[in-house]
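Sorry, I am new here, but would you mind making up a protein's amino acid sequence and the tokens describing how it folds?
***
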Amino acid sequence: MTSIALRQDGKTLKRIEIDETHAASLRKERALEIWKRLVRYVQADLNHKQELQNFRALVVECMAWNGLVGVPEDVVSESVGLFRTLVAGGKRATIKNTDPFKLCSDGITPEQAAIKYQKDFLPGLKWLARNPELTEEARAQLGKEAAQFLWEHGDENISLGLVIHQDTAQSFYSMKVERYGTVASPICRFILDRLDYYAKAESKDDIIPLKVCVYCRKIMFFERNSRKTCSDSCRVAMHRKGL
């Protein structure tokens, strides 16, 4: 069994125990949702309100995955999906009754952050999508750029706290996020977490569910690895051209 302690403003809010099979299924479901939002964000026209809403949801869900999230008190009871992401992350989770963006030290608005970091995440997703048209050398160079950004924001700029466990049946200690350095930090940390899991997993098929659309060449999210195009319109256009 996996035991997750949800803490709200320093007090234990709830302790949830889930079996490993259910935990794995939930983890996959929530991770896919975050990847889907991330792909949408990096290629979005941020002049549209719904795209800024998607970015805000992306940051909040990544915060929940990492174990520290701000949730205004009047919406805690409504955040079913958020609690599912907290549990899926598998970490000692802390909820603070505040605007989630106030957990970040850079002090910029969600709108400013969405615009500022969009171009920085694009190389990372291009690297993870493993475009077959790129040479190995070009892909490695792209990876160097991406990794530097991911590590700076997802590790160096995050404040971590060491938690020593009294009950050592599961583990002796764990690291808990206490504060995010920038608005990009929660997203970067989620990606690093998935990359670490990818390195350890025996089956790697859908841990990084990104590829390049064979027709329009945009980065695409997939739920089925056999999918080759990012949309029905690209699939139809490719069929019409006999590709």
In short: The longest helix spans residues 20-42.
